[in-house]
Amino acid sequence: MKIHIDLGKAKRMRYRPTPIFQWLRHQARLADEGGVRVAISDSFGRFTRYFRKHGLAATLRRFTQNAAPAAAPAKEAGQAKPDPFDVLHGTDTGGRISGKDIAGVSLSALYSTAYVGTPPSAFTQALAVLPIRYEDFSFVDVGCGKGRALLIAAEFAFPRLVGVELSDELCTIARSNISIALDPERASRISVVNQDATKIIYPDGPLLLFLYNPFGSPILRRVLKNLERQVQESPRPVYLLYGWDPGYKEVMESFPFLRRISVSVYPLSAEDAQANPFGRTEEHFTLYSSDTIN
Hints:
2 domains, seven-stranded mixed beta sheet, 9 strands, 294 residues, two-stranded antiparallel sheet
């Protein structure tokens, strides 16, 4: 059944995690990327600087009311101008939402990265060269955000497409985008599930998983362990397409059931590059296959 949601309401949503949780998420990301010492040093340094300048009472208020530091500003041009994909389809898939501003209170939410829409020009190229018969595979976007990758993948002959997203607000936007952008036939092939990525029960049959750097390594490990268990219980062809660079190469290679097939770099179109919040002009995609594929 096709779901109709007011996109205007979706756009007005606000992401308001508590300040303490924002701070915890910031520290978790620092520890994941630079180690525990980096995270401790960051907290101690910020606390000490503020204490010397404002005193203990003000410091405690600061760290409880506005604990996380301001996010690095995204590229102004990317924020100010409408995303060309959204202009074309009437959707809301552009912009950037910092990981610390995405609602959710769980271990998975603690390691959420920023939401950024997959560059359409690069992702289309990556899908077009996959060594699969699309009609044989289910497409699963793990951390689907606003659903842009689902909209692009729906142009291919996947019989079933599933988006998994922890944030219920982003799920609402993704469902609305699907309803707006796609005809009933293509929309009927897509479902968006509001679920923790570590608890996914994957569809039967061959799978193509897509991850666009949705979370840090602790959650990625749990996601891959869950996938490995299900593949062992029900052997079938599985491909995993990971977007971003350098990604989490060490984490991926610690799972023997996955074999890296290729690393490809695709240029962004001029429109996508101009709208990219990070000023990127190309995108990396790494393709893995399960060891059940000969």
